[in-house]
């Protein structure tokens, strides 16, 4: 038998959501108040030097592990159980239909047999897991099952990082699944509870912007594009002669010359809105769809002044910031002003933290 991993493990005990991106490590810990509302108990971010993570691969293990230790210390948490994620490019997922009423052991045998058809590696080389989604929509009595598989070394890299940082990895998710879980709460807040609403979710990272088009929890389309917030940092370097490190720090603190907004920020925001418009056009030309109902934008650059308005003006679709903490209570342990400013960059880590409550 193959070893089943923990891509869909569920853990009711306190749990940290830890998102490792190309530019930072982000931590979120959620609780629940007496009224059932989520409570933001911890949240912190620690920057990574460029080159620590490349295309989702860990290039500088010790530096990333040290950043993880720092973000845990900065947050003040005592929780050690952690949910982490792999990039979607490192995970093969497939929905299959299996007979209903099978025991867990019978399901494992069936999943292993089915997985052979879809995974281009020996099953000895992969960590494989599955999750029963629910009754099959197409065949009565059957169930829909999601299989997820990743190369063992990819899983072991994340586990090793957690352990090197003094943490216990209990959930290994997929980044795009985690961000969808957090975005799901926001979609429910749209008209008609988001039912049948076509939502384009953009996560603007440092070097890559990921796009997912979602309707009723189904992903109709996903695509990554090579543009992101690091291009704004490069523009600041060129305009003012700062080092890249100085430019990044000043971009985050807002400590920039008077002409920054007009000569650097606005052209970049317009360019970013155009890239998002182009990504949508690519979706329209490669699918039967010709519109979306709403755009959600997340990531470190999402909160740039004027971006939401620029996207709406450029695409003619309504747009809003994806604030994963919307409607949550804030514990005294969290610096609320800073958290609100950085909220859209916590989408994936918030989704990972929500795994604590997944049933």
Automatic annotation (TrEMBL):
It comes from Ramlibacter aurantiacus. InterPro entries: ATPase_NBD, FtsA/MreB, PilM, SHS2_FtsA. Residues 15-183 form the SHS2 domain. NCBIfam families: pilM. Pfam families: PilM_2. CDD domains: ASKHA_NBD_PilM. This is Pilus assembly protein PilM. Gene3D superfamilies: 3.30.1490.300, 3.30.420.40. GO terms for biological process: cell division.
């Amino acid at each position: 038998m193959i070893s089943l991993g923990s891509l869909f493990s569920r853990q009711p005990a306190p749990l940290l959501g830890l998102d490792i991106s190309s530019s930072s490590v982000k931590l979120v810990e959620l609780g629940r108040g007496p009224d059932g509302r989520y409570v933001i108990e911890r949240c912190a971010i620690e920057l990574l030097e460029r080159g620590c993570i490349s295309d989702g691969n860990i290039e500088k293990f010790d530096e990333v592990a040290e950043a993880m230790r720092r973000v845990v210390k900065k947050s003040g948490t005592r929780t050690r159980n952690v949910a982490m994620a792999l990039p979607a490019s490192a995970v093969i997922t497939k929905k299959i239909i299996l007979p209903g009423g099978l025991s867990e052991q019978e399901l494992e045998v069936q999943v292993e047999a089915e997985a052979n058809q879809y995974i281009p590696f020996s099953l000895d080389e992969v960590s494989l897991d599955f999750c029963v989604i629910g009754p099959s929509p197409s065949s009565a009595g059957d169930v829909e099952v999601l299989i997820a598989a990743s190369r063992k070394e990819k899983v072991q890299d994340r586990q090793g990082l957690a352990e090197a940082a003094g943490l216990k990895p209990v959930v290994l998710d997929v980044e795009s699944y985690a961000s969808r879980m957090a975005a799901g709460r926001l979609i429910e807040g749209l008209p008609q509870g988001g039912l049948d609403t076509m939502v384009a979710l953009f996560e603007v990272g440092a070097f890559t912007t990921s796009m997912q088009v979602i309707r009723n929890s189904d992903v109709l389309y996903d695509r990554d594009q090579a543009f992101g917030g690091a291009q704004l940092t490069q523009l600041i370097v060129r305009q003012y002669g700062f080092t890249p490190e100085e430019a990044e720090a000043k971009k985050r603190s807002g400590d920039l010359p008077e002409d920054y907004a007009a000569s650097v920020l606005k052209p970049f925001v317009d360019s970013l809105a155009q890239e998002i418009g182009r990504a949508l056009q690519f979706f329209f030309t490669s699918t039967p769809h010709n519109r979306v109902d709403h755009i959600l934008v997340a990531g470190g650059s999402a909160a740039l002044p004027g971006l939401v308005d620029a996207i709406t003006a450029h695409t003619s679709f309504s747009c809003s910031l994806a604030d994963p903490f919307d409607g949550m209570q804030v514990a005294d342990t969290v610096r609320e002003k800073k958290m609100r400013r950085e909220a859209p960059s916590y989408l994936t880590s918030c989704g990972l933290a929500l795994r604590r409550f997944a049933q």
